[in-house]
Design brief:
258 residues, alpha+beta, Bactericidal permeability-increasing protein, domain 1, seven-stranded antiparallel sheet, 5 helices, binds 2-acetamido-2-deoxy-beta-D-glucopyranose
Length: 258
């Protein structure tokens, strides 16, 4: 190998080395900058911080609801809830199975409050119609009446105003801080109405079944009071699960800028 050949060889090696180092930094960089294009950050020092979170949240919601394989979020239209168990004391047991929640695409995000100092946040949102469709099994007493049956269920929440309060902290993953939603979260809601349909009550007795459905619908507020806690608990844990999938992939510093 003469000198000029050696020079060419060395420059090739240098090029390869540069390429290697370049790839290394960009690959490492890529694993850190995971912000999907629809998740836009907001700057905490801006006076419009909460308005920014509201706007960016509104923009991101339709994309999140469609699901994102990269973030491990399933399509939420509909949201599938495998089990909801309502264990309201020894007098009433209701199990819901394979519940499909339709209507999340109607979410209207109304307010976002985030307090970075106390690490508390509130989301307020309206959903015009949420339909919970699936299977139920019930045995016991609901609003003092004996009820028993197993079949199809349709519980529809009309004109819902929802408020989700949660606390958050950060968790270090590979030296990078990520947001975590704590599990002392609270979901409150008020409905303008609800429709309840339980098919095949009392072994398919049409008369008793219709009477019970009419009774439940006439007293929907009390029914929701009795079932709401378990439904809200299930929805909260699903919500936390989805949020934590996003937050585990997206560093805190990329969502909330200084
Ligand atoms: C569920 O009930 C609501 C309210 O009555 C109705 O609008 C909707 O069509 C029903 N959904 C199904 C799948 O039956």
């Amino acid at each position: 190998m003469n000198q000029s050949e050696l020079a060419i060889c060395l420059s090739k090696m240098k090029f390869l080395l540069y390429a290697f180092v370049y790839c290394l930094t960009s690959c490492v960089g890529a694993s850190r900058i995971n912000l999907p294009p629809y998740l836009k950050p907001c700057s905490i020092s801006s006076p419009d911080f909460e308005a920014c979170c509201l706007q960016h949240g509104r923009d991101a919601l339709p994309m999140i609801l469609k699901g994102d394989k990269k973030l491990g979020i399933p399509n939420l239209l509909p949201l599938v809830v495998p089990h909801i168990l309502v264990d309201a004391g020894k007098n009433l047991k209701i199990a819901f199975e394979d519940i499909h929640v339709f209507g999340l695409d109607g979410i209207d995000l109304k307010q976002v409050k985030i307090d970075i100092k106390t690490r508390k946040a509130t989301l307020k949102l309206d959903v015009p119609q949420l339909e919970l469709i699936g299977k139920y099994e019930v045995d016991g007493k609901l609003l003092v009446l004996p009820i028993k049956g197993k079949g199809d269920v349709n519980m529809t929440a009309i004109g819902g105003h929802y408020q989700y309060d949660f606390e958050f902290s950060t968790e270090r993953i590979n030296g990078i801080d990520h947001l975590v939603v704590l599990d002392n979260d609270v979901l409150k809601f008020e409905l303008e109405g609800a429709k309840i349909r339980l098919d095949n009550l009392f072994d398919g007795d049409k008369v008793l079944g219709e009477q019970m459905n009419t009774f439940l619908n006439d007293n929907w507020k009390d029914v929701i009071d009795e079932l709401g806690g378990a439904v809200s608990q299930t929805v909260r844990s699903l919500g936390r699960n989805i949020a934590s999938r996003i937050f585990k992939k997206v560093p805190y510093k990329e969502l909330i800028l200084d």
